[in-house]
Structures are given as structure tokens and as C-alpha cells.
Amino acid sequence: MSRPARHVFVCTQQRPPGHPRGSCAAKGSTQVLQTFWAELQKRNAYEKVAITYSGCLGPCDSGANVLVYPEGTMYSGVTPADVPEIFNEHLENGKTVERLLAPPELWS
Amino acid sequence: MSRPARHVFVCTQQRPPGHPRGSCAAKGSTQVLQTFWAELQKRNAYEKVAITYSGCLGPCDSGANVLVYPEGTMYSGVTPADVPEIFNEHLENGKTVERLLAPPELWS
């Protein structure tokens, strides 16, 4: 891919059932990732947005976690239903989706 | 983790042997990742640097690929021996390691 204007990392970390930290995968992050990829295709936004899955981003309790660079914006508790809003507001227009921001004690 | 000043993504994508695109894992990226984590620990740099593995970053032919945000700097052909230099120059001092930059036709 060419260098994107914005790069989305979706945590898809898995952990065994019952693990005390839980995981983003257990909170549905694979579906979040698939929804980001589907939106990318629908919008044909390959020249300006990249979507990549990643290992653990830290605040496992509040997953599914999605991190957007270059801003370094961490969204938490993301569901597939939130993905179009993140695309419309942040990825295409540079506006933070305040309601999904990770708590400042976890990422600031 | 708290928000890092610099965030390193190491591609650890795997593909089956003989796959035409190859993969960063086949080019030793797991060892690169382990070396980054070992340097992070050695330098106790957890407050300013994060190291995360990721899925495919694009230029598979020139792996192992390492992407540093917020700059969006892509290094290619990275080996474990290169990791201390990336730490010293880029992660701790903000200077690009020119000799490891991905070719501009792949990332610009």
C-alpha cells in the first residue's frame, strides 16, 4: 500500500477463555476489523486510509480498541455499528469521535 | 499502556511456504519484534515507546517491515541487528535512519 493519510490499527489480540485480562477478540474486535475493511472497500478509500490488525494495544478491559495514527487517537468499546461514524468523522474529515474516546486514565 | 511518544509496529504476517507474496515472518520479523521488546525492557522505555506487532503493512517483498508513528516512517529489510540503531536514532532522538527507509515507490 502507499502511505495513507490515516492508519487504523484494530486490536485483534486473543487470550484463552477465563484469562483475567480478557481480550479485544473476546469483545468482538474481529467483526470490527471486518467492518472497517468492508467500509474501506465500499468507499474505495485505499489511497487515503489503511486498516491493519494489531496485537495488544493496552487497555484490554475497555476493548475493542481501535487506534488511529498519525493523531494517536484511541477509541475504546468500539462495535461494528460505530465504524461508519469513525470513517465519516475522523478518517475522512479529521474530527475526533468524542463519545468513543478511551478514558484519559488509560490513554493520555 | 499510556500514550507513547513513538509507537512501533512490527509486521509479523505469516503466509504458507511458497506463497508468491512471501511474508515478513519468513524474513525473520518475529526475531525483530523480540529484539525490539528486549531493547524496550533494557532501556526501561515503557513510558515513551510502545512496540506492537501487526498484520501486513504492504511492501511484503522488502520485509521485514517496521512502521513508526506518529511520523509514519516505514523501514524495510530490518534485521535484529538494526534495532539498537532505530532505538538510538529515531525512537529516542527523532532522527530518521535513512539507510533503512522503505523505497519511495513503496511508501511515500
From TrEMBL, chains A, B:
Segments passing through the bilayer: none
Single GO molecular function: metal ion binding
Record keywords, A-Z: Iron, Iron-sulfur, Metal-binding
Highest taxon in the source lineage: Bacteria
InterPro entries: Thioredoxin-like_sf
Coiled coil: none
Necessary cofactors: FMN
Species for this entry: Derxia gummosa DSM 723
Stated name of the protein: (2Fe-2S) ferredoxin domain-containing protein
